[in-house]
Amino acid sequence: MEDRERKPYLIEFPVIGEPSVGFISIAETAGVLPFDCKRVFWTYNTPESILRGRHAHYATEQVIIAVSGRILVTTELSSSEVQVFVLETPCQGLYVPPNVWHTMQYSSQAVQLVLASTPFEEADYIRDYATFKQVWG
What we know:
Elements: E1 9-12, E2 15-18, E3 22-25, E4 39-44, E5 51-57, E6 62-68, E7 71-76, E8 82-87, E9 92-96, E10 101-106, E11 111-116, E12 125-126, H1 129-136
Antiparallel strand pairs: 1-9, 2-3, 4-11, 5-10, 5-12, 6-9, 6-11, 7-8, 7-10
């Protein structure tokens, strides 16, 4: 399947532990992650009224995880297919391939962790929706 045809999908991370001692989930390239992780970043204290993201990437693949709280992620493919994902458990992540427009809205206590396939490079971002549709539509 060509890169531009890949769709976002949910990833279930292994859960180890029990309620009396707590839990751990693991994301390793050899198994769960569909790419080698080159960058990790997180967002927090984002007001509920703020819509983040609003961009696509030329090359970067990401896995978005709600470590705490709830994150509503809306994705749009170049074909205009829209999907909405609700992330609210730290043992689940959303794989977002390149060329997918995505936005995130957070609950008041949400902490988002993102695993990315590339180091940060501004030139990889498509921040204008019309340009996204022109490039990938």
